Amino acid sequence: MSDPSPQNGHGGYRVTDIWSEEEQRIHSGVRRVVRRHDSEDVIQEIALAAENCDRIFQCKRDAKKYLHGIKRNKLREHKRQTIRKPKCGLDAIAETLIDPAKSPLEKLAIESLFQMAFEKLSSNDQHILHEVYFVGRSDKEIAQFLQVSDEVFWQRKSRAKTRFRKIIEDLSGDNAN
């Protein structure tokens, strides 16, 4: 069965031409997968990507497939971002670097130790660890912001964490004496 000829004036179907037909399906598909408060953001990203699509399709079915492909990719992107998003604050660093404290007093001592160690880091190391663990940005976002490749950023992050561990070990040794 062939699609009826498009009445849109540009000789084919654009993704935006079929948005109104598929909008309800897109909304329900996103809401099944994404938490309620995030679903509107994901739907807006899909709509924006559809709006920015310049392709013209000969048949309506292809335009629909493309739109649902955009939806699938945006859902995957959202899932990757939420899974990799670290916890924020000193607790996240504590869980990453050493075992969390068992008692509130031990936890307070560790947080104090971490604060002192963090202040001894260089401003570059502080910035990297702050963006990852306090702000919760992804490695890719920070690498783009710093205008370096992902690999270079991962090396810098690894070195910052290593330096942070070393300072903690040094401070722990001082506190033990």
Mean of residue pLDDT?
79
CATH architecture of the largest domain: Orthogonal Bundle
Principal-axis shape equals elongated
Q: Whole-number radius of gyration?
A: 24 Å
CATH fold label of the largest domain: Arc Repressor Mutant, subunit A
Query: Major β-sheet, in short?
Result: none
Q: What would you call the structural class?
A: mainly alpha
Percent range for helical residues? Answer: over 70%
Extended strand count: 0
Order of helices and strands: HHHHHHHH
User: How many domains in all?
Assistant: 2
Q: In percent, how much strand structure appears in the residues?
A: under 5%
What tags apply to this protein structure?
mainly alpha, 177 residues, 8 helices, 2 domains, 76% helix, elongated, Arc Repressor Mutant, subunit A
Q: Would you kindly provide a written description of the structure presented here, covering whatever features stand out?
A:
- The chain has 177 residues and is mostly helical.
- It contains 8 helices and no strands.
- Helix 1 packs parallel to helix 3 and helix 7 (139-146) crosses helix 8.
- It starts with 14 loop residues before the first helix and ends with a helix.
